[in-house]
Write a structure and sequence with these properties.
140 residues, Jelly Rolls, 0% helix, elongated
Length: 140
């Protein structure tokens, strides 16, 4: 797995991977970006809007070369975009967060030989709750 490193190869920006899931089922993962080879994730944004019960937590699962990194926010604000940010980039799955900061401090978030991105939300009752995710990525 490579994180925030300069690489000497060309990259091709791909169309954004987008998920718009009406009424997501609690604790079910929804695929946003299916397994891609030689992939660089530039950024990931996620938004949840709820009607009654606040979902908690909101989680993105990024599988990079067989290692899972989970980005989460415990109490997401309704209708607010959150963005994946690495807190400890050299220690996978340690304190990664979804934050209100839209741009990571580097040119890209993470890259690997094979990457996939899934999202889930949990709550007690299913309700009218649109879940939206956008993944900006490139191939190398």
């Amino acid at each position: 797995m490579r994180i925030h490193r300069y690489q000497k190869y060309s990259i091709e920006l791909q169309p954004d991977a987008v998920l718009s899931q009406a009424n997501p089922v609690s604790a079910s993962y929804y695929p946003v970006l299916t397994a891609r080879k030689n992939c660089r994730i530039i950024g990931i944004g996620v938004l949840i809007t709820w009607a009654v019960t606040q979902p908690t937590p909101l989680e993105l699962s990024v599988l990079v070369d067989g290692q899972q990194i989970v980005f989460s926010v415990a109490n997401p604000v309704s209708a607010t975009w959150y963005f994946a940010n690495l807190i400890y980039p050299h220690i996978p799955n340690s304190g990664q967060v979804l934050s209100l900061t839209p741009e990571p401090p580097h040119d890209f978030l993470i890259e690997g030989r094979e990457i996939e991105v899934d999202v889930r939300i949990t709550w007690a009752v299913t309700q009218p709750t649109p879940l939206e995710v956008r993944v900006k990525y490139a191939k190398w």
